[in-house]
């Protein structure tokens, strides 16, 4: 459900490191710019209690503004040995599913619900509906970002128009293509298949359905909409 910054040392490592995960990578630059957009719409972020659905510690330790408290809900624990995934005292993390939150979370209210590149991983319309229901239940304000279906380069595999290819072709490419954003590139088509099927990119129509009362922000690159952000600031 979360993006992974570690990469396997193979022939694509140098190119991937310039695109994804490293402090000076293109993707890190996108995230920094997106955080600036978040601060424009939520200038009181430093006083907020934020719940981050599916996020990581490093999103907030690298943020120019630190919220008063961040509650992370993620189905996976932090990557061991990654220094900036150590929990500071202003971050709480618990292992859980954002589509089926436990009562001790659903009974609370937060100042802001935040999610970055997670909703496309939860698994089909019903799970996306549950994810959106969690967002609406936890706060009146939210910031939910997803990669855009119609951006010409699929962001997880870093391959042009990958999302529109037949599934057998996708799995063949995934097992051979060296620029995957996944932590470990699959070695066979059988290994690639569940990874390919996990990702379901979303369009404006999807986002308007799940967040009908939100402002839909288009994050653009090279004239194309790279990602969509459902934002409700009040």
Give the arrangement of secondary structure elements.
Blueprint: H1 13-19, H2 26-41, E1 49-53, H3 57-61, E2 69-74, E3 91-95, H4 103-106, E4 112-116, H5 124-138, E5 142-147, E6 153-154, E7 159-160, H6 167-176, H7 189-198, H8 204-210, E8 215-221, E9 224-232
Parallel strand pairs: 1-2, 1-4, 2-3, 4-5
Antiparallel strand pairs: 5-9, 6-7, 8-9
Helix pairs in contact: 6-7
Write up this protein.
It is a single chain. With 234 residues, the protein is an alpha/beta fold. It has helices at residues 13-19, 26-41, 57-61, 103-106, 124-138, 167-176, 189-198, 204-210, and strands at 49-53, 69-74, 91-95, 112-116, 142-147, 153-154, 159-160, 215-221, 224-232. The chain has 8 helices and 9 strands. The strands form 2 sheets. It has a 7-stranded mixed β-sheet with strand order 3-2-1-4-5-9-8, covered by helices on one side. The chain has a two-stranded antiparallel sheet with strand order 6-7. Strand 4 (112-116), helix 5 (124-138) and strand 5 (142-147) form a beta-alpha-beta unit. Helix 6 crosses helix 7. The chain is globular. The two termini are 28 Å apart. The relative contact order is 0.15. The model is unreliable at 1-11 (pLDDT under 50).
Return the average pLDDT rounded to an integer.
87
β-strand number: 9
Strand content: 15-25%
Distance between the termini: 28 Å
Q: Give helix % range.
A: 25-40%
Detail the poorly predicted runs: 1-11
* Coarse shape: globular
Structural class label: alpha/beta
The number of helical segments is 8
H/E topology pattern? HHEHEEHEHEEEHHHEE
Any descriptors?
alpha/beta; seven-stranded mixed β-sheet; globular; 9 strands; 234 residues
